[in-house]
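Hello Y.,

Per our agreement to keep a running log of every chain we model this quarter, I'm adding this entry. I've kept the format consistent with earlier entries: sequence first, then predicted structure.
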Amino acid sequence: MPTFEITTASSDDIRMMADWAHAEGWNPGLTDGQAFFAADPRGFLVGRLDGAPASCVSVVRYGSGSGFLGFYLTRPELRGQGYGSRLWATGTARLAGRNTGLDGVVEQQPNYRKSGFRPAWTNLRYEGLVPDGIDLPPGVTLVDVRTLPFGQVTAYDRRFFPEERDGFLAAWTTTPGRTALAALSEGEVRGLAVLRACRTSSRIGPLYAATPEIARALVGALAATDPSTPVAVDVPDVNPAAVRLAEQLGLTPSFETARMYTGTPPDVDHTGLFGITSLELG
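Predicted structure for the entry above:
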């Protein structure tokens, strides 16, 4: 009989998980693994069949009461044989008692419902080339996030995420291969966005902004760093202004997921959430 065991993922395993995710059309960032590992080093699991990777999942803990599940994948030729469900059981046990979120692809949403997840909103990935030009609202300046006191950055992030995630955020905004900008007005952070290189379109996430005009300026400035490469933003439909902005920029819907939770959706600032950070870690 083949031997199936579950182990904590190594850094090489996390790179493999990103390759698997790319094959599913998720288009993860080229250096996402470094930031993911900083979030929760023991939060990535691999199911091995006779020593070879067969399935994977991320079950990252945030703070004392939250968690996020992602990267739930099984090698295509091994699907339907129980290797994914066995890993799921181990992974969800690690998040027992926490309000756990995930971003589920359309075909898997009925299965997630059976496991106790309920939809909070739909994420629509919009992508394409952004028109030239950056129109800054009066009194707003854009600066490199790394020039700001880190506490100011994390405090702003907490408006849009239910728990502290300082280690992850530090890596997410400074890892090579990405650009992180903040919008300032009278010394206060009024927007934040990170662009990261991916296998196809570059991804922008998170995209936070006090107004659509600030969000537009952030997208334009990030896209201008490589005008020939399309950008992609996972836009939450819970913020209609974010959907309108994506359409005004001429971006096209290309992928859909549902943000789902096991408990009550966290009370965050949806009006300022123009793009989620990632499908894998929330």
